[in-house]
Amino acid sequence: MTARDCREYLAENRLPTIWCPGCGNGLVLKAIAGAFADLGLDRRKTAAVSGIGCWGWADDYLAVNAFHGTHGRALAFATGIKLANPELTVVVLMGDGDGATIGGNHLIHAARRNVDLTAVVVNNYNYGMTGGQYSGTTPRGSITSTSPLGHVEDPFDLCALTAAAGAPFVARGSVCGGENLRVLIRRGLEHRGFSFVEAASVCPTHFSRRNGLRTPAEAFSWLRDHSVPRERAAGMTEEELRGKQVLGVFADHQSEDYGTRYRKAAAALRREEEPS
Fold this sequence. Notes:
- The chain is built from twelve helices and eight strands.
């Protein structure tokens, strides 16, 4: 992949981005553009669907078709787009608040239905755009604007959730490993059916500062120190894994996608209705 290849998928007239200095969103954007370039996707046949939140702005910077929907509903809109035009490659851009907290019900049902979409959820552990409130993925004990004494809830493991709901491709990468994240997104795009890629990221403005990470460099170090490759995690005890997030591929199998099953059912009905 060359820099020029990657730039073909970026709306350079809209750069630089509006994200805070030190935010991981730009690294995820680069990984997506790189994955598009790796696959040589036709920009006219590629659609980015987003919701509300910091990461929801990402579609503004991609030089493909874009649909910006309401909070928590990106997967619902993306499902309609894909079923209406199966020729499109549809990538859904959501944050942890948009995709898993407000939109959690859509997430599990998109995985259950096995709709042919690639969901890229940037997990920065809080609602970054609206003041740093806790989300469904905020680590227990973390300080947020709505948990000033420490968050008392256990977070979702989004990869375990989507794999259990039936997604055939599930992976977690980190903004600390941009090239690996690009590979995971590319594999998700290549996979037929619902693909889920979580990108562990940092929010330097809210989550990081409230939890003693004064600079983006400290936030990235924290993210790196709290991440473990799946291969190494297999040899660690439950105690050693407490507070860590495991990176890698958690599901990778083939399963007939929703659109294919639907078209087969429609074709069977037409045959039944044909005069003998």
